[in-house]
């Protein structure tokens, strides 16, 4: 009987999932499971600027504006504001005023900062706290003062906002406000109450309305109002966390955000796990009812008009390595995943014609592939000050064009990125207003339009251009010296060799020798700053979806060597610069579109960037997660997502059934082997009893 009972017990256990990393009490609940790799450093909206940090704080903090979740090109939409504010010029364009009206009735998450008694805690009680939420919780209504307070925090000498320098150029009085705070801030141990100090360029109109006055014209300023830098911060939160003993317990605004968003951070262990929970005071924002063509077919409008958020809790687990993350995703323990390079072939197959699809294994699981072209460009730049490849001479221009044809970015994307990229035909990223489409999207200097697609010009064209530039067969026509060019890049280790070899082969196709100078980031930056590079590789990720945020990278006034600006090529073209000054101050319109296309044509002809590519993000999601659409401009996406917890639980059971037959077989063999010994033992006992 005993062996039979053991086997029955083991067989009964097969119905359970033995490897589930989560609590059994959470099964079937509306919880989204995700992972993170990098430990966030800042959760204070005035200081945070990295993607890893933004994925947390953008669920908590609400600036007045956001990006429409579904529409492309990216479009600003109200968040806490009643409407997208209109720029009003005053004093003949000397200033521009934005009046922001906040929706009444919005309330903060429950938090101890809103309970007056919690502002006089003794150090002993603070030392006993495991979480700030162990104290009595309160709330209050969001007001215009909270937004004004955050703008003042940009200038605080105790904080280091990465955008202070830029905003000080535009917001009236912000630079002077910062200098005044520095003179006033002499008592470092005391709380610095910014309410007591007036900022000239920001004015409260009423409890739910405030104005921001900026210098001159800056149409792109509205995009900043969709970033957490301009989210509200209640003065009570700063004062609460400033109490002695709070910082020693990691109780700071940089660790425990306080907002009005759909979620609140309730568990913060950045080495292991972070948890967002539904804000019970959230007003219930409606899921969008409009999107792009095809969104309805993809099921992205099924929840139109329903109150968000749909998920009650979001659990983030830290995964330091890709393989464990990937395996847990396949087991159903993470609802979505990126595709690590070392598992790309396991997830994605590329057809002969270049079509991308999922492997049969992924399709069998019902996994969905979601792709998005990033608002990013990585490019091969030319130093305009260099005497060989730079400048506006016809000789140098033909040399750059020859190089632009020879460097096969299509091949680079295929070999090193698993096809996850789009060849750049101009400085603008997809999804940005003004980028040409169709035949007009093709750079005629490097490609031709054939069979409805862009095709790279043949290498013979590059060799002909090299002859016209005075370098037949890669040698100076006058001196006979071989043409040697130098590429500066940041080395990443032994894995760089295949990539460097590839670069050399590209130049060798037109008999040009390439010397690669790989170095560390600091040394590389120093060379760029001094303008001592010849060719270099860099990239840019858009701060906001406006053509100005890409075209300014080629604006002469932004020359890195002369002004420490972002024009790392030190490119100067008076006509391009003249058009840029016009374009940046014109709202999106046919007039602006015409100017942009003129600028693109100039950049294509001059080639200060000798080609590049836009990365394409590949993401996977299980069929029980709905409403997922990549958004490269915002990370406040969790409120839109919905999960079918029942379907997920069923699939987890199906995919994680333990394989017990080897154990059962071993037990059976051991039991069978023990029977003769047991029978012999019993026989000896009976004989001894006689």
Nutshell version of this structure?
With about 700 residues, the chain is of the alpha+beta class.
Question: What is the overall silhouette?
Answer: globular
CATH class of the domain at 376-617: Alpha Beta
Distance between the ends: 27 Å
Give the low-pLDDT segments.
Answer: 1-15
- Helical coverage, percent range: 25-40%
Proper CATH architecture of the domain at 376-617: Roll
Count of DSSP helices? Answer: 22
Structural class: alpha+beta
For the biggest sheet, the summary is: 8 strands, mixed
CATH superfamily of the domain at 376-617: Dipeptide-binding Protein, Domain 3
Averaged pLDDT? 91
Output the radius of gyration: 31 Å
CATH topology of the domain at 376-617: Dipeptide-binding Protein, domain 3
Q: Please indicate the percent range of residues in DSSP E strands (runs of 2 or more).
A: 15-25%
Total strands: the figure is: 24
Question: Can you give keywords for this protein?
Answer:
alpha+beta; 24 strands; eight-stranded mixed β-sheet; four-stranded mixed β-sheet; 690 residues; globular; 22 helices; 18% strand; Dipeptide-binding Protein, domain 3
What does this structure look like?
The chain has 690 residues and is α+β, with helices and mostly antiparallel strands. Among the domains are: 2-18 and 659-689; 376-617, Roll (Dipeptide-binding Protein, domain 3), CATH 3.10.105.10. Helices cover 31% and strands 18% of the residues. It has 22 helices and 24 strands. α12 packs antiparallel against α14 and α19 packs antiparallel against α20. The longest helix is centred in the C-terminal third of the chain and has 29 residues, at 661-689. The chain is globular. It starts with a helix and ends with a helix.
């Amino acid at each position: 009987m005993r062996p039979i009972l053991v086997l029955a017990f083991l067989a009964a256990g097969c119905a359970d999932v033995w490897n589930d990393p989560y609590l059994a009490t959470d099964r079937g609940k509306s919880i989204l499971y995700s992972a993170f790799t990098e430990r966030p450093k800042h959760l204070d909206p005035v200081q945070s600027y990295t993607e890893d940090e933004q994925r947390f704080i953008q669920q908590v903090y609400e600036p007045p504006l956001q990006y429409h979740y579904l529409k492309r090109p990216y479009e600003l939409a109200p968040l806490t504001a009643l409407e997208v504010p209109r720029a009003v010029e005053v004093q003949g364009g000397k200033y521009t005023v934005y009046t922001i009206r906040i929706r009444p009735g919005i309330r903060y998450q429950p938090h101890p900062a809103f309970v007056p008694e919690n502002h006089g805690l003794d150090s002993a009680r603070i030392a006993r706290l495991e979480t700030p939420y162990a104290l009595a919780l309160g709330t209050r209504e969001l007001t215009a003062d909270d937004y004004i307070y955050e703008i003042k925090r940009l200038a605080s000498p105790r904080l280091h906002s990465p955008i202070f320098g830029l905003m000080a150029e535009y917001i009236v009085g912000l630079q002077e406000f910062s200098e005044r705070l520095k003179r006033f801030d002499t008592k470092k141990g005391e709380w610095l109450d910014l309410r007591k100090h007036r900022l000239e360029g920001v004015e409260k109109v009423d409890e739910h309305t405030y104005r921001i006055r900026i210098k001159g014209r800056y149409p792109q300023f509205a995009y900043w109002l969709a970033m957490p830098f301009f989210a509200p911060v209640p003065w009570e939160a700063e004062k609460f966390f400033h109490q002695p003993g709070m910082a020693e317990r990691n109780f700071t605004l940089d660790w425990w955000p306080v907002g009005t968003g759909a979620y609140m951070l309730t568990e913060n262990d950045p080495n292991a796990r972070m948890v967002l929970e539904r804000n019970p005071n959230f007003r219930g924002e409606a899921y969008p009812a409009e999107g792009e063509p095809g969104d309805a077919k993809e099921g992205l409008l099924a929840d139109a008009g329903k109150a968000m958020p749909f998920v009650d809790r979001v659990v983030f687990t830290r995964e330091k390595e890709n393989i464990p993350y990937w395996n847990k995703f396949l087991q159903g323990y993470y609802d979505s995943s990126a595709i690590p390079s070392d598992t790309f072939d396991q997830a994605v197959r590329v057809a002969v014609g270049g079509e991308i699809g999922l492997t049969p294994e992924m399709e069998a699981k019902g996994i969905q592939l979601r792709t998005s072209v990033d608002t990013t460009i990585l490019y091969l730049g030319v130093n305009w000050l260099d005497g060989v490849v730079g400048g506006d001479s016809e000789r140098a221009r033909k040399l750059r064009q020859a190089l632009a044809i020879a460097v096969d970015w299509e091949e680079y994307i295929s070999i090193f990125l698993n096809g996850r990229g789009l060849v750049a035909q101009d400085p603008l990223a997809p999804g940005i207003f003004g980028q040409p489409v169709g035949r007009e999207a093709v750079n005629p200097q490097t490609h031709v339009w054939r069979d409805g697609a862009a095709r790279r010009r043949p290498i013979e064209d590059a060799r002909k251009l090299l002859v016209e530039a005075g370098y037949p067969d890669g040698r100076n026509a006058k001196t006979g010296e071989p043409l040697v060019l130098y590429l500066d890049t940041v080395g990443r280790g032994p894995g760089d060799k295949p990539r460097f070899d590839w670069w050399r082969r590209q130049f060798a196709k037109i008999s040009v020798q390439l010397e690669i100078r790989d170095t560390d980031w600091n040394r590389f930056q120093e060379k760029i700053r001094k303008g001592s590079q010849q060719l270099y590789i860099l990239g840019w990720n858009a701060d906001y979806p406006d053509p100005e945020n890409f075209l300014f990278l080629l604006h002469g006034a932004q020359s890195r060597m002369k002004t420490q600006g972002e024009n790392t090529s030190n490119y100067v073209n008076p006509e391009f610069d003249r058009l840029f000054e016009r374009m940046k101050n014109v709202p999106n319109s046919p007039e602006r579109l015409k100017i942009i296309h003129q600028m693109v044509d100039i950049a294509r002809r001059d080639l200060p960037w000798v080609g590049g590519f836009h990365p394409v993000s590949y993401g996977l999601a299980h069929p029980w997660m709905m409403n997922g659409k990549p958004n490269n401009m915002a990370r406040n996406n969790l409120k839109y997502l919905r999960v079918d917890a029942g379907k997920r639980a069923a699939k987890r059971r199906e995919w994680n059934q333990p394989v017990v037959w080897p154990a059962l077989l071993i037990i059976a063999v051991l039991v069978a082997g023990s029977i003769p010994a047991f029978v012999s033992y019993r026989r000896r006992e009976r004989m001894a009893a006689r």
